[in-house]
Amino acid sequence: MADKQYKITSRMTDGWKVTAQVRKHTLVIDQPSGGDEGANPLETFLFSLAGCLSAIAKMVAREQGITLGGIEVEITGVLNPAGLTGKPTEDPVGFKSIDALARIDAPLSDEEKQAFFDLVCHRCPIHDNLLRATVVTHQA
């Protein structure tokens, strides 16, 4: 299958608000100490993981003929803010840990739900990016 490229361009002008037009959607990232018009970047990052896991769960359920009544994904990230504020720390600047908990509404046993969610996590591109280093380049 051919590669598919995703591209967004964000803009920040006054305050802390960052916007991006993605297809027909305007996405907003902001800070509570700013205008608080959207989730902050870290919350948005975690939401992206939860959203991807949810979408992949629907795909896998459809493929396997599982009646998925719904899925709730709770993502918890632990981060020491010292690095992002420029203070010395031995911790990574990013999240030290990220935990995903799924509450799956489907006629499956607990073991089957775990196997289902394992497969979902294995197929989720965002989950994969967190597990394996992805080359990120930057320039100004």
Key features of this structure:
single chain; 140 residues; alpha+beta; GMP Synthetase, Chain A, domain 3; 2 domains; three-stranded antiparallel sheet; two-stranded antiparallel ribbon; 3 helices; 5 strands; 32% helix
Describe the structure.
Helix content is 32%, strand content 22%. The chain is built from three helices and five strands; from the N terminus they run E-E-E-H-E-E-H-H. The strands form two sheets. A three-stranded antiparallel beta sheet has the order 1-2-3, with no helix packed on it. The protein has a two-stranded antiparallel sheet with strand order 4-5. Helix 1 (41-64) packs across helix 2 (110-123). The model has no long low-confidence stretch (mean pLDDT 96).
Helix content range? 25-40%
Largest sheet: 3 strands, antiparallel
CATH architecture of the largest domain: 2-Layer Sandwich
Number of strands: 5
Major β-sheet strand ordering: 1-2-3
Q: How much strand content do the residues show?
A: 15-25%
Radius of gyration: 18 Å
- Helix-strand sequence: EEEHEEHH
Distance between the amino and carboxyl termini: 33 Å
Compose a concise summary of this entry.
The chain has 140 residues and is of the alpha+beta class. The chain has 2 domains: 7-38, no CATH class; 40-131, 2-Layer Sandwich (GMP Synthetase, Chain A, domain 3), CATH 3.30.300.20.
Describe the secondary structure blueprint for this structure.
Elements: E1 10-12, E2 18-22, E3 25-29, H1 41-64, E4 70-78, E5 97-105, H2 110-123, H3 125-131
Antiparallel strand pairs: 1-2, 2-3, 4-5
Helix pairs in contact: 1-2
